[in-house]
Write a structure and sequence with these properties.
Length: about 270
Amino acid sequence: MKKGWKIFWLTCGITLVVGIALLGIGLGMGATMEIVKERAPIKETYSPNIQESYQGIRELDLDIATGEIKILKAPKEQQEITVETQKISKNLKFKCYEEEGVLNITTNKKVWNWIYARNHAQDAKIYIYIPEGYKLEEVDMNLSAGSIYIEDIHTEDLDIDVDAGEVQVESFLTNDLTMNCDMGLIEALGKTLGDADLESGVGEINFTAIGNEKDYNYDLNCDIGSIVCGEREFTEIGSEYQIENQSDKTMSIECGVGEVNVQFQAEQS
């Protein structure tokens, strides 16, 4: 390697080390994003708040970069899904529209970085009101940062994909369940009538399944993380397990370096 390139890469390395050290010192002295906002305020413009209702919705598709999303129960007699928003930055390019029975709610993922996300996640709020007992065919959620709270949801197919955000589901009923957590956290309680597919990268999934442990066959794959399923724990590196309970539904669990915890709760009559 030429001498000039050696100097260049050495300079880059030194700059990186110094930058990390200064960041650590700043955090250690109590620096926060709120202080940064006060010292160097950024003028933020927001999209107009909306309150819109939709009828005949069969599917719900969320693709969210950052923000606080709450899916709440509405009165059963309402029979329409309502969306309300507050303080959503124009930079997020928020869209909410219905297309052939699919309600799409999206924000632009290309514009955010971790500083922006932390700075604005608490500002952007989306409320989705679904009538109690309303059954959807499919619910697909993709969350990069921020949080999603679900009070209750009933769907044939429930798919939750989290990058670095947090999802909390108080109650659900679905035929087929898919939960994928890269770096964030998913906590869910609900009943699955069919198969369940859980996958964690370096994140954490805590799932309380309504029913009994023997309601499922199991296909488990654990790299260097931890899988807890009922009373059993699987932590052996690079291990695979197949458990046959003569059931007509299967729970597949794959864990990289994170954690997947599955517990069971008896169904109340």
